[in-house]
Amino acid sequence: MPRSLTLHLRERTEQPDCSLQSDGASRGCSLPDPGAPHDYAGCTTSSREEPIITTAASLAYAEHYRPEDDHLATARQRAVDVGVVPIGSGGGAMLTFLASTIGAKAIVEIGSGTGVSGLCLLRGMQADGVLTSVDLEAEHQRIAREVFTEAGFAPQRFRLIAGAGLEVMPRLTDAAYDLVFLDGDKVEYGEYLDQALRLVRPGGVIVFDNALWHDRVADPSQRDPETAAIRELLQHVANDERLRSILLPVGDGLLAAQLV
Fold first, then answer.
1. Confidence (pTM)
2. What mean pLDDT, rounded, does the chain reach?
3. Phi, psi at residue 201, to the nearest 5°?
4. How far, in Å, CA of 29 to CA of 13, rounded?
5. For 75, phi and psi rounded to 5 degrees?
6. How far apart are CA 4 and CA 233, in angstroms?
7. C-alpha distances in angstroms, 38 versus 18, 56, 67, 246?
8. Three-state DSSP class for 245?
9. Contact between 204 and 250 (Cβ < 8 Å)
């Protein structure tokens, strides 16, 4: 059985049957095959089902529960200026939380962007921790360096490596990282996982951004290469006995897996 960890608030103790009826209404839900496309558009809740957040207001409230400061706001504006889409506010807060919870001292991220995710990770790390950030675009990394410096982080707290993730990751040290954050080419997510499993220490955490990919992963009609690659990743992680995982509906979806 997969060791995937799923959070549920039960209104009853028996295991629900959540299969969809032909009219799209829910009978109550058994968990779907992880990573497989399912059509949830017609799902409704009743007193016999799990409570589900359904309003945009609730999702927005949760997403912005932790306000961001001027440094993150600046990094986000610079992302807009250069056409980069950074991790969402809720996802960034989760990165800070995860890095802090595991006492991270060594983190690698694929996809520096303009430093939004990197700044969130640095803020959660130990005071002597080092972030290794990899990105193809030297200009993006120049901006990320400015963001980190303006936020008060000394140069020895981060190292920026220009290059493709799958070219740089094989050169990094085995089992040397507490957390690996992946936000690069979605088609390469499966290969990123292979490398991350080598890089992360036992008990360390692997995190993927865009795990719900603009609502496409849950839509069975969406079969583009990026969506298909993310669905395959979700299936693989859920069924890997080495990993304890959770899929979080923050931002564009965040998949976190701990190497046990």
1. 0.83
2. 87
3. -75, 160
4. 13
5. -60, -40
6. 13
7. 12, 21, 33, 18
8. strand
9. no
